[in-house]
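Hey L., structure's done. Input below.
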Amino acid sequence: MSQSSLRIGTRASRLARAQARLAEEALRQAGTSSEIVPIRTSGDRILDRPLADAGGKGLFTKELEEALLENRIDIAVHSMKDVPAVLPPGLVIAAVLPREDPADVLVTTAASLDALPRGARIGTSSVRRRAQLLRARPDLACVLVRGNVETRLARLDSGEMEAVVLARAGLKRLGLDGRAHVVLSTDEWLPSLGQGAVGIEIRAGDARALGAVCPLEDASACVALACERAFQAALDGSCRTPIAGLATFDGRRLSFRGEVIAPDGSGTAATGFAADLGDDAKAAAARAGHDAGMALKPRALPWLAA
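Output:
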């Protein structure tokens, strides 16, 4: 690796490497050489229990952020849905790449969710997906399934369950979008905050890394993520809280819908807005997302405190 190359830290899974290669290629096109450095995270090692019982979403970022702070890598590439709302001191998200389709998909041979038999087993490790599934079909049996995309699909194919819910972005990035699946429209099935977005984290004050990754920023994704992450931070829910939301920005107008769901799917507190943003769209989006979260919080408090 040359003196000028950037070291790209990433989780070691095939999907994480595919996302790191998106950053690597974007850097190459911008004239910066780089090298991918795989790092196995706690979230990749702990597969026998829900994330909530093991320490939460930070398990997918902790080792990467430690490597950044210890100057073992120059940038870290993350799935933004896995990044806690508050970053460790000394680190910043410097760029967000163009966002992939944020929708969830139901991978199954059935024609739809409604076509699944009563009591069908559906694999997911997400409290948000479980709550949404039970809200739509209280009879379903949600089965904990951890591990990478390939592992989850293998468990489905072996007959352990009748369906599994995955992010469409992951399937597309792995070239698996052709798997039989039903796209769950974001009009009815709000995704995880940040789903489909890839962010690049650097050390605050690292002018070299900042100069290299700033040109990679996708303005629409950046503004949308600012809104979603501010909404997440305002709610301050735990990893046991089913929180969903999606913002879109067309260069002028920001639209957002968000919700907090009872873990058993028995209730929902929802919000939404649309607003024209001024010159500092990112800051305005963050303020709007924060305000939406704070306004929703009293109605969602019983589930946030669970």
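The chain has a mean pLDDT of 91. The chain has three domains: 1-97+197-217, 104-184, 218-306.

-- N.
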